Amino acid sequence: MEERIPMTTLIHRLAPIALAALLTACATTPPPTAPAGPAPLPAPTPTVDTAPPTEAEATAPAPAHAMAAELLEDNLRPGEKIDLDSPDVNSDLWARLRAGLQLQDLDDDWVRKAEAWYSARPDYVERMTTRGSRYLFHILEEVEKRDMPAELALLPFIESAFVTHAVSSTKATGMWQFMPATGRDFDLKQNIFRDDRRDVLASTRAALDYLGRLNKMFGDWHLALAAYNWGPGNVQKAIARNQRLGLPTDYASLKMPDETRYYVPKLQAVKNIVLNPDRFALTLPPVANHPYFLSVKIERDIDVSLAAELAGLSLETFQQFNPQMNKPVILAAATPQVLLPYDQASAFAENLARHTGPLATWTAWVVPKTMSPAEAARRTGMAEAALRDVNHIPPKMLVKAGSTLLVPRGEHVQDDVSERLADTAALNLAPDAPPLRRVSFKAGKADTVAGIAARYKVSATQVAQWNKVGSGARFKPGQAVVVYTANTTTAKAAAPVVAKAQAVAKVTRSSKSVRVAAQPKAKGGKGGRGVVAAANP
């Protein structure tokens, strides 16, 4: 991790207005004192025009620096001031976190296994903790506001290693690994423009809301954590089973999958490392006890690349703090703030206030009728390949009426994308016109998206889109699968099989002497890959 300048040096380097903005923007909770930690990285020189103002600009009633001060806002305690020389602010956040640990310790072979795993990977631990240091202050603040155990602030270490854009094989996404349905239950929007499961603030709020609900449900933090990993219904069933058998119902006594059995011990191992890293020959990066990032209000749609430029950040770094964006534009109606490293926040606010010219080169267009991507491209003045790429439209698909596409924003367009459209925008696709036929069947034991795509001579992207799974997914045995194909051989070959099954069923119903009818075995053996239905879409 790069060396970060001390607080006193930072004060002298900040422009007066940037300092004023920061002083009115930040807040912290007084923690236990500890050796001073480093301040955040200094801001790189912005790559935007910073020429001296003209005489007209100098006499303008609303100077850029005043606008910048109004745009800065801290998400935790707006309006409260921070003393950058305070020992509390310059103390190590790890000490504050250690003081808030509350959960009863586990000490078993599962914990030893997790400790050994982390101890054998010092480089991984260093990357994970350095990455986590960006977000720990905010998470710990939120945990403390709810009077929760500080251990919960460590949970992203085992969920995602603090990778904000992490996606699991089961489509759990973000730092806190929310499944799509659970995310929607906690108001995490998921549409073509953004996925709030990746949003640092929104996902943290939702995760702690969910954990609080689970703790109320089970009255035990270990069981709440098990439910977060395994699902509350499964934990309830495991408790009910033990109750029927007269067995204890604590975490260690329940019958559960190994993944869940290992879940809380992994958290315990991370806790043990935080308490005493030297014991495991590991090093934790020092983390200053003040916000690593601040939020800056945006009032107009803005391109992601321009926002990064105004902040003086690389696109990759900007996206680490704002990973929820699915498109190259930030819609102010749905995302009224961006997160930026502590030092870049004031620079961004001032540069944004000074900026002249368009902020967004993209806008949303609602497709008036079902059409091909080629026709949509002609109507919007785009190359078809570019429209397909930015909107993730696979080959041989039509865009259905009412879908929303991201398209270039013409000079005549003055209005930003509305809040309703920013929150509800969806892309609905349909297979291109006949001779495509709809084929549905049940997946076999080894069926994957790639395998089915090869079998039906279509792309894996299409199979994934049709079945709403990832392109690398494996289907569960018996899972219903849909394919649209121009090859009708499979469908026609299925007709005699279906006719035979219907004939056997008819004999069964009409003959008293027939008690059991033999059914045709689905192609592919147990689990079945036989065609269930085939028809024009």
UniProtKB/TrEMBL annotation:
Signal keyword on record: yes
Biased composition (Low complexity): 46-62
Span of domain LysM: 439-483
Annotated region described as Disordered, given as residue ranges: 31-62, 516-537
Signal peptide positions (record): 1-20
Superkingdom, taxonomy of origin: Bacteria
UniProt keyword annotations, A-Z: Signal
Pfam families noted in UniProt: LysM, SLT
InterPro entries, per the entry: LysM (IPR018392), LysM_dom_sf (IPR036779), Lysozyme-like_dom_sf (IPR023346), Transglycosylase_SLT_dom_1 (IPR008258)
Comp. bias regions, Pro residues: 31-45
Family affiliation: Belongs to the transglycosylase Slt family.
PANTHER family: MEMBRANE-BOUND LYTIC MUREIN TRANSGLYCOSYLASE C (PTHR37423:SF2), SOLUBLE LYTIC MUREIN TRANSGLYCOSYLASE-RELATED (PTHR37423)
Name of the protein in question: Transglycosylase SLT domain-containing protein
